[in-house]
Design goal:
Elements (H helix, E strand, L loop, with lengths): L3 H4 L23 H17 L1 E2 L4 E2 L3 H7 L10 H17 L6 H17 L20 H15 L6 H18 L17
Antiparallel strand pairs: 1-2
């Protein structure tokens, strides 16, 4: 993975865009620039994958500061959920922009890795839990979004999709355990 930038094929600005005639037509940015930005962003996400931790790092600075700390937090949930969701969105919505490295990472490594975790192992830097030992609402909503994207991905096995569906149902039940914000003027994130 570390040689991904060097091995990435150069962008062909004349390639198609998922058959959509409207892509970029009303945008302020040209379709060629959108494609180049999407490819560069996905390459950056790929570079943040850590196969040993089965997680994405928040940044290269985060990796440099924390990589030597073995045995501590292995999954960084919020960034992993967002990174995987972004790669899946690219694969599904603009498949010709996603190369085999992106497909392999998202479909055969990151999805199985995420689904192999028990939700009890998730430790968000925003707070381990809120009410009833469930994830804080922000992290839980990102998890739900990521699981929904996985459930809709027809390029993975039915077995993985079934696991994701079960996890999605459980996560949605967790959302229902939150009480409405009825506490007087509690600061944002106070319960986290």
């Amino acid at each position: 993975i570390t040689s991904y930038r060097c091995s990435r094929r150069p962008m062909n600005p004349h390639e198609g865009y998922s058959g959509s005639q409207d892509l970029g037509r009303n945008a302020l940015v040209s379709p060629r620039l959108l494609r180049a930005l999407a490819i560069d962003a996905s390459a950056a996400i790929v570079e943040l994958w850590d196969p040993a931790r089965r997680s994405f790092w928040r940044s290269t600075e985060h990796r440099a500061a924390e990589e030597a700390k073995k045995g501590e937090v292995s999954l960084f949930p919020t960034v992993t959920f967002r990174s995987l969701e972004a790669l899946l969105r690219l694969i599904e919505e603009q498949p010709e922009w996603a190369d085999s490295v992106i497909d392999d990472l998202a479909l055969t490594r990151a999805i199985p890795a995420l689904l192999s975790y028990d939700e009890a192992e998730f430790r968000s830097s925003l707070g381990v839990s809120s009410e009833g030992n469930v994830l804080n609402p922000f992290t839980l909503s990102l998890y739900i979004d990521c699981l929904a994207r996985i459930c809709g991905c027809f390029r993975i096995s039915e077995e993985l999709r079934a696991i994701a569906r079960t996890r999605l149902e459980n996560a949605c039940q967790q959302v229902l355990t939150y009480r409405h914000a009825s506490k007087e003027s509690a600061p944002v994130g106070a319960a986290v």
